[in-house]
Amino acid sequence: MVHAIGIDVGGTLTKVAFFDDNQKLTFLYFLSDDLQRVSDWIALFDDDVKIGLTGGRAEQLKTFLRCHDNLHYLVEFDATVAGVNYQLQKDGKNFPDAVITNIGTGTSIHYHRGDEHKRISGTGIGGGTLLGMSALMTGIHQFDEIVQLSARGSRSEVDMLVSDIYFGNKTPIDGGLTASNFGAAGLTPLMERSKEDILATVQGLVGEVISTLSIQCAFAEDVEHIVYIGSTLSGNIPLQNIIGNYTKRKNRTPIFLRDNGYSGAIGALLSIRKEN
To answer: How much is the mean pLDDT over the chain?
Structure first.
C-alpha cells in the first residue's frame, strides 16, 4: 500500500515519486498542462495517502486537490537538494560540497554544502529552449525525437570553432572550443543543413551555455564537483555528453544521477516520510 507520494509540479512536466509495496522507489510523470490527469491518478489511492508538493506550479495543482486533506508543501529548492542528497548517498558519491545545476524548463544553479544551499545563478536557457528552438527551426516538437535525431547529427559545419576564426594560426585559447553557436550557418543557407545537424547544434548551444555558467560558479565557489540534474537530461545522452565533456575540459568533475529528473519529487516524498 502506498502511504506517501512526492510530486514536483514543473513548468513542463509533473514528476511523481513513491515507494511501492516492496519499498522500491518508483517514478512516473505527467504533462503539466494536464493536471486533471494527475488529480485523477491521485484519486486511485486511499484518502489518507500523504502528498508532498513542490515546484513552480504546485499551487495550481492544489486547486485540483481541494478535497484532499493531506497536502504538505515544500519549497522547491529545499526539496531538490534533499532529493539530490538522497540520490548521491544511494549512488555512493560522497564529497563535502558541490554546485547543483537543475535543468528544467529553465536552469537554476545552487551551491550546496551539507544540509545548506544557496541559489547562486541561473539562466533562461534550458529544456524549454531545447524544445522551442527545435520546433521553430525544424518543426519537430517531441522531446524523444529531438534526442534521437540530434544523436545522428553533426555540429561541425553549423557551429564556428575558435580554430575556424584563426585559420590555422596559433590560438590564444583551446581551438576546439565553440567560438559562436550557429556561427557558421550564416556562411551558407541554413536550409541546406539537415534536421539532424540543426538539432545537434541546438543541443550544443543549450549544453554549452549551461555548463559554461555552471563551471564559472564552480570556480567562484572553489568547488570540484558539478551535479547536473533535471528532466531535460533524462535519456538525453547527447546533451549529457556535451555537458560532461565541456565540464571535464575545464577541469571540473561532472556528476549525472540515474534518476536525474526526479530530485524534487524525491525530496518532497522524503519530507513526508520524515514527518511520519
So the answer is: 91
- Out of 76, 145, 224, 275, the active site residue is 76
| Higher per-residue pLDDT: 276 or 218 | 218
| Domain spans, the chain | 4-78+263-275, 123-256
State the pLDDT at residue 275.
61
Sole residue written with cell 504538505 = 72
In the predicted model, is pLDDT for residue 274 greater than 60?
A: yes
- CATH level 2 (architecture), domain 4-78+263-275: 2-Layer Sandwich (3.30)
Quick check: is 145 catalytic? no
CATH label, 123-256, candidates 3.30.420.40, 3.40.50.720, 3.40.50.2000, 3.40.50.1980: 3.30.420.40
Distance CA 148, CA 144 (A): 6
Residues composing the chain: 276
Q: How far apart are CA 221 and CA 228, in angstroms?
A: 16
Torsion sign across C-alpha atoms 262, 264, 270, 275 = negative
CB-based contacts of 196, cutoff 8 Å, min separation 6: 149, 150, 152, 153, 154
